[in-house]
Write a structure and sequence with these properties.
The structure is a homodimer of 342-residue chains. By secondary structure, the first copy, chain A, is α/β, with parallel strands linked by helices. The first copy, chain A, contains 14 helices and eleven strands. Chain A is 44% helix and 19% strand.
Amino acid sequence: MTVKTRFGSYTVEFRTLAEAFAALPRDRFVITDENVGRLYQQNLEGEPTIVLTPGEKSKSLPVAEHCLETLAKRGATRQTTIIAFGGGVIGDLAGLVAALYMRGVPYVQIPTTLLAQVDSSIGGKVAVDLAAGKNLAGAFYPPKEVLIPLDALRTLDKRQFRNGMAEVWKYAFIADKDLLGTLKAKVPNCSNNVNNLKGIVQRCIEIKKGAVEADEFETSGARAVLNFGHTVGHAIESATGYSGIFHGEAISIGMVAESYLGEELGVTEAGTAALVAECLQLQGLPIELPTSIHRSELMSLMSRDKKRASKGLAFSLLTRIGECKLMDGVAQSNVEKVLNKL
Amino acid sequence: MTVKTRFGSYTVEFRTLAEAFAALPRDRFVITDENVGRLYQQNLEGEPTIVLTPGEKSKSLPVAEHCLETLAKRGATRQTTIIAFGGGVIGDLAGLVAALYMRGVPYVQIPTTLLAQVDSSIGGKVAVDLAAGKNLAGAFYPPKEVLIPLDALRTLDKRQFRNGMAEVWKYAFIADKDLLGTLKAKVPNCSNNVNNLKGIVQRCIEIKKGAVEADEFETSGARAVLNFGHTVGHAIESATGYSGIFHGEAISIGMVAESYLGEELGVTEAGTAALVAECLQLQGLPIELPTSIHRSELMSLMSRDKKRASKGLAFSLLTRIGECKLMDGVAQSNVEKVLNKL
C-alpha cells in the first residue's frame, strides 16, 4: 500500500521482523523500549539503540530531549534514519524526535503492537504529551516507510491484544459493516495464527489511509472522524494519569458513551449503542466508566480537547453502523446526561 | 515581497510597530522577552503575552515546553496565531512553539533587531539549542507573515546594531558586490535615520529569499551558502557558552577565518580575506579570535556541525567578492593551520 502525503508518499508493507531489519538503511538508529528490547534482543544485537522506559510517561519533551542529545553525542547526522521499533508510544515519540533532529531526518516505523499496526504507525501524526493534555506537542511528519511485522503480535499478552482490537472494532463501526460481520463471526484473539489477522489489519490500514489522504492535516473533518470514542476516551486516560487503563480500553468505553450521546442527539440510529456495547463486550473490552472516575473531571478534561474549535464540544459520532460524521458545538449538558447514565 | 514555500507562500512587508500590531489576527498570543516587553509595554497592553528571559539560554526545549504548557493552560486553540515579537532567539523559539503546539498553529514574525530582520525571521527555520550544539532541535516551519518594523531599530544599542550589520556584510560578501560598495561608502550605524536602512534591509531579504526558495529544506547547497562564516562562528559561540560574544561578532571572526581558509585551499581569490577583514573592522566588528578560546576546542566543536555530511568539514567559501560555493570534505589540518594564524 502507498500513502500519499504533501511531502511525497510512503509505503506500508507486511514484513516479518527479520525481513524488516534486513531491509533497513545502513545508517540508522533504533529507538525502542525495555519490553521490546528484551523480547527482540537478537534482532537488536549490534544496533545503535536508545532504550526507553515503557509506557505513556516516556511520551514527554524531556524524554525527547534525552533522545536528541543521545543522537547528537553518538554522531547521528542528517542522513541517519531513525527506526521507531515498538508500540504507539515509541512510534509517536521516535517520530517526533526524527521530526526535530537537525530539523528533520528520515524515520521508519516498525510497529510491534496491534494498536500501532492498525492505527498510530500510519498517517504521520507524531507527538508527546504535555501536563495540560495528551499529544499537545507534535507535528505532522510522515515516515519514509512503515513495515508491519505480524509475527511480533505473537508476543502480545491478551490484554494488549484486546487493546489493539478496540481500534479494529472502531474501524468497523465508523466505516465498514462487512468488517463488523467478520469480527463478530470470529472475534480474533491472540492465540489465532497471526497470519490470519492479515486481512483484518490490511482493511484497517486501508480505512486509515483513506482518511489520512483525504485530510492529512486534520482540517476538513475527514480525518477527525477517526476519533470516534476518543473525546471521552482521552478524558478517561487523562483522568487516570495514563496508567491503569489502556488506550483501547478507554476508547472502548468512549465508543459506547459517544454512541449513546449520538442517540441522545438524534444523530445515531436508535439501537446502535447497544450493538456497539455488545460487540466490545464480546471482545472482552470494558464498556462502563470506572466508578473511581468523576464525571465532572471528565467534563472539564473534555473541554480542553484540541479538536474543539468553537463553544461546545466536538465528537465523531456514528450515524449508523459503518458511517459517521463530525459534530461540533455539542452542549455540555447532553454529554453530562449520557455520562451520568453510564 | 512574497516568499514561496512548499506549504504555500507568505509575505514580508515593512510596517511600523503600531501598524504591525493593528494588522494582527484577533485570536493571538505574543511570545517576547523582558527587554522587548519593557521597551514596548504600550504596544503589549492587554495582549496575552509570554515574557521570557532574554538571551540564547531561552532557546531550549524546557523553555519551549513552558510556552506550550502556558498556551494550553490559557486556552490557545488550533486557530490561535503565535506572534514572535523580538530578536532571533524569540523568533526561533516562538516559531518552534508554533510548529509544535497542537501539531502546528500559525505564527507571525515581528523581528525587532536588525539581525532578525535581515536573516532569521525569513526562511522558516525554527529551532532550539541542545547541550550538544546550536539549533540541533527544530523544524522548517514557515510563518504566515513577516512584518518588519524598521522603527524598532531605534532602540538598538550600538553593539546590537553592529551585530546585525555582520549579517548585512555577509550578504554583500557572498552575493552582492554593489551592496558592498554601498556599505563601504556609508558604513551604516544606528544613529542613521532608520528609514535610510530600508533599501539595505530589503536587499538582504531579497538575497535570503532567493536562497530559501531555491533550497527550502537545505538539501541542495543553495541555502547552505548563507552559512558563510557560520561554521567557525557557531563553534566560537559554542565555545563561549553563547554568552560574552554576540552571533554577529562570532560570524565576523568566522568570515575572516573562512576567507583565509578559502585562500589556503585555493578556492578564494587572493586578497579577499584582507578586504573582508578591512570591511568588518570599518563596522567596528571583531576580526580576531579571542585568546581565551582554544583552537583545539573549536576544531572539536566544528566536527559536530550539522552541515557536515561526510568525512572532513563543510564550509561556505567565497570564490571572490559577491560569489560563494559550498565545500564539503575540508581537511581538519587546513582549518587548524588557518586558526593558528588568526
